[in-house]
Amino acid sequence: MVDWEGPLTEAFERAMTYLNGLPERRVGPRATSAELRQALGGPLPTGPTDPREVIAGLAKGVEDGLLPSGSGRFFGFVFGGATPASLAADWLTTAWDQNGAMYASSPATAVVEDITADWLVELFGLPSGTSVGFVTGAQMANFTGLAAARHEVLRRAGWDVERDGLIGAPPIRVLVGAERHNTVDRALRFLGLGTNCIVPIAVDGQGRMRADALAEALGEGPQIVCAQAGNVNTGAFDPAAEICEVAHAHNAWVHVDGAFGLWAAVSPSLQHLVQGIENADSWATDAHKWLNVPYDSGLVLCAHPEPLRASMSLTAAYLIQDQNGERDSLDYNPESSRRARGIPVYAAIRALGRSGIAEIVDRCHEMANRFAQRLEADNVQVLNDVVLNQVLARFGDDDELTRRVVTAVQSDGTCWMSGTTWQGKAAMRISVSNWTTGPTDIDRSAAAVLRIRDELIRS
After folding, report:
1. Is residue 397 pLDDT above 70, yes or no?
2. Which residues touch 350 (CB under 8 Å, ≥6 apart)?
3. How far apart are CA 364 and CA 357, in angstroms?
4. How confident is the model at residue 314 (pLDDT cuts 50, 70, 90)?
5. Per the CB 3.0–4.6 Å rule, which of 120, 250, 392, 434 could disulfide with 81?
6. Residue 391 in contact with residue 430, Cβ under 8 Å?
């Protein structure tokens, strides 16, 4: 008889120890690369090892090299945590081990993702009939949305890119804000368009694309406009309503990179930030950011299912694709064999409901403002308007001091945030994205940042 209980019990106990310790755990790794290699390495095993022993050794070996991004005092990148329901559903997803490619390969997965897709479209206030693909993250969501855009703008120009490729195709111009996220550039490389197709559009002081500059740059022929919902540094939103109006007047496709900012649509108090976003043609976002589900969980949404299906669909004699209108996921994303990643998203939405998701978004916004206020009250310069969950802090109007504070805070372990360069100036970048973050976390973290700044100035 197979022993499932031993290794799974060991994993459960180790996981509970980790999760229960997060509130007080040092926020940062505690081991060097060399120490981790010594703990985990060794020669290739020549024979079997008891599975429970393997899990215990793995957990012990990685313990000091983990970055506790699920902590309420983790403010790096734009990482969320994992809610209990989504984490538990993710465990079940792994245990069930379903291939989420087609209805035939997992009817339950197909139905769960179909239901979840409808919920997501409603949560974001997008047009009825919008299709949804479950991908790994915002990178692949941008890639997939832009693949649909590439198909459609070339189709309008009389070119079948899926059949004929790009050699000899009409050139595509991609108009995007100068402060875009680099996943857009990377997606364009993946799609064979290259970065020379990019027409950078001027932005304002917060990184928002200027609609007037876009209007001047738009021309004729195949064009894609990439708008941004939530600048990765400032949190600022491009003016979606104006962008969609002027872009569509020039027959351009509008894609929105809304990796975290799209979730503002769920909050009644923050919906104004995404006004007009429903008029776009495709959208990319992450569920592992503000929905706080485990990695990996990106989402691509498309108001026009046919271009998305045309760019993504796969047929083969051995595949059993459904003929009765049931969901075959491989028509909406670039993967065939994949885990049933829509199940944790379903569980998160079911557990939180619209009001619970809005509460997370609102609280993170409130906590970001609280962090900014604590720093400003002690003569720290905040470079951005805190419209969402991002705070850019600068110390002594000095690049070197700012970078030293960031490095020292990371080493201190009270909290963790990363550095950035914003419009030529070094800054500490604080992202409040975790569902557990509360006032105590903010006050404790701000106090640590100010203490470290003072120590560095005195040294």
Report:
1. yes
2. 85
3. 11
4. confident
5. 434
6. yes
The predicted-structure confidence for 4-14, as pLDDT tens digits, reads as follows 999 999 999 99
What does the block give as tokens for 247? 């872009």
Q: pLDDT (tens digit, 9 = 90+) per residue, 220-273?
A: 999 999 999 999 999 999 999 999 999 999 999 999 999 999 999 999 999 999
Q: Where are the alpha helices (DSSP H) in 97-218?
A: 107-124, 138-156, 161-164, 182-190, 211-217
Is the pTM higher than 0.90? The answer reads: yes
CA distance 31 to 188: 37
- What residue type is assigned to position 355 of the chain? S
What is the DSSP secondary structure assignment for residue 276, as one 8-state letter?
T
- Describe the strand order of the beta sheet including 253-257 as a list of residue ranges: 131-135, 298-302, 282-286, 253-257, 223-228, 173-177, 198-201
Evaluate if residue 322 carries a pLDDT over 80.
no
- Where along the chain do its domains lie? 5-68, 88-348
Q: How many CB atoms lie within 10 A of CB 169?
A: 17
Distance between CA atoms of 58 and 14, rounded to whole angstroms?
10
pLDDT beyond 80 at 325: no
Going by pLDDT thresholds of 50, 70 and 90, the confidence category of residue 1 is confident
CA distance to 149, 269, 375, 391, per residue, from 366 (Å)? 36, 11, 14, 12
**Contact assessment for residue 224 and residue 175, using Cβ atoms and an 8 Å cutoff:** yes
Torsion over CA: 294, 328, 184, 259 (sign): negative
What angle do helix axes 107-124 and 342-376 make, rounded to 10 degrees? 40
